[in-house]
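Morning. Coffee machine broken again, so started the prediction first thing and wrote up yesterday's gels while waiting. Chain of 662 residues, entered below exactly as on the submission form.
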Amino acid sequence: MAFGQESKRGLGPKAPAATSCRGRWSRGRAPAFLAFFFAFLTSTALILDRLYPPDLSRLAVTGSEIVDRQGRIVALKPAPGGVWRFAIAADEVAPVLVETLVATEDRQFWRHPGVNPVALARAAWQDLRAGRVVSGGSTLTMQTARLLEPRPRTVRSKIIEIARAFQLEARYSKREILGMWLTLAPYGGNLEGVRAGALAWFGTSPRLLDPAQAALLVAIPRRPEALRPDRHPARARALRDRILQADGGDVPAARVKLPRHARQAVAGVSGPRVVTTLDLPLQIALERLAATRLEVLPERASLALLVADLQSREIRAVVSGGGGRQEARAGALDLTRAVRSPGSALKPFVYGYAFQDGIVGPETRLDDLPRRFGAYAPEDFDRSFAGVVTAAEALRRSLNLPAVALLDRVGPLRFALGLRGAGIGLRLPPGADPSLPLALGGAGITMRDLAALYAGLGTDGAVAPLGLFAAPPATRPLLSPRIAATVAEVLTQPFPEGGPPGVAWKTGTSWGGRDAWAVGFDAKHVVAAWVGRPDGTPLPGATGRGLALPLVARVFDILPPAPRPAPRALATARLPHPAGADALRLLFPPPGAQLSDEGPVTLRAMGGRRPLTFLVDGTVLPTDPARREVSWTPPAPGFYRLTVLDADGGAVRAGVRIREAN
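Came back before lunch.
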């Protein structure tokens, strides 16, 4: 018994010891298990977060906003699918809009981690009591998640939105999340985002919203179609006033037309925000001028206008067609890029080359009389001839014969290559070479290239393409600064029907009236105008002077006046030449040349003071006093002595041999 009692007593204390051990084990294992469980949940959440990040693809698909050089909206282009959606940040809207949005939709937005448990619980209780969805309890972050990935309104969708809200808050700042909401919020129809909503409903920038406008833009996204102001004004106004806590007046009765200025010029550009060199007020003024002028033009006629800064070569306004119903006349064509015949608009550059070569000067007297150039026999526009005129007068009056004669002296190929070297390519008919009709429009050119040439005349004689989106490239020389200034002085004259003074201008009319041109420049701007039919059919009776020049004069009336340069005396026929180039010299044939007797030989000299006298073996050849060349037909094979004398007594001689042709 003693043993048994001892054993019982011995066993008695051990049972509690075993129980205590299990309790300690349980108490020690529970925290570890919980730690493991939470670690598992955390790691799982992190893995899922990395595997399934928020889908921001809708945010990346936006339209294009084209702005002028001061950031004013010139045109908007919708996103693919025709949705008007434009990226915007919280800092780009009026503060009152952000304040109203947060106060109305999510008062705890700045403090919660993406989800407001109190709001969710309250919404769930309200929904249970009502037996229907009364409140979603969504935060602005959850709404943003729903805008990024639209889903049916179900419990499963709500759970996904909660998870996405946490993901967004972990990745982005509160203001970045606001920017997403402001970019994607629906505003009825194909309008998305506050920028599209503000422009379509109020015609204003989101930066300039007043409290009533901000309240309406907060209200509409709750039920975009049911609260459209143009369809349900009473509902929209009621909710707007409730948010505003005041009477905000009438709501918009219709959508405002979104900006679409310079439509053809910016048709090919894309990107969220495209900065141009345009000036929006000037662009609008030119579009109104074009629309007004189109009303009185003949059927199917259209027009194009271009204004560029003379020094920077940046385009400030560009119009193709007239907008509205008139726009159908040119469709989506950018007529400033269309290749058209310039008529006489290239003549100033022919004269510039002739002045620069020393062939003539502004006061040189030229003949405007009937003359043939091989099979080519040009006439003046009015089919009459002016007789003897100065070169300056011939250019101002756009006489054809003197211009063709000067191009004959300059050389059509050299003239065309000179323009090409300056970046201006003339479009010739297939297989054709540059020839004398270039002086009268026998090649194609675009308005932009033509205006670029005249910008060179208005500055230093160098040419650069006109830029619309970026700074133009470096200029290329065409004429010397002195010669460019001389041509500009010749072209500076009053407008025939009135206009500001101090403008140099020239017109051009292509054959059949297909193209009516005028280009002008002052000390600040170059302006080009074209009138014609886009399909290239004739416009009978159309002239650059009658149709295009009044447009140029009106544009200069709109532009701010430029300071008038001091008047300059026109250069004389003896124009400056490179060093050592004033001396009389025989260009062709060179001394010792051997020529065949197959036909006439053109003796050509350079330098010296005119008139020049050409002699062969002491016999004077009949020549035009204004010219530096003469045609001579050798009477027979043999050796001949050629002599050229200038008005100052200078002389140059050369011996040549004429061989009998085999």
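The chain has a mean pLDDT of 86. Going to sketch it on the whiteboard this afternoon.
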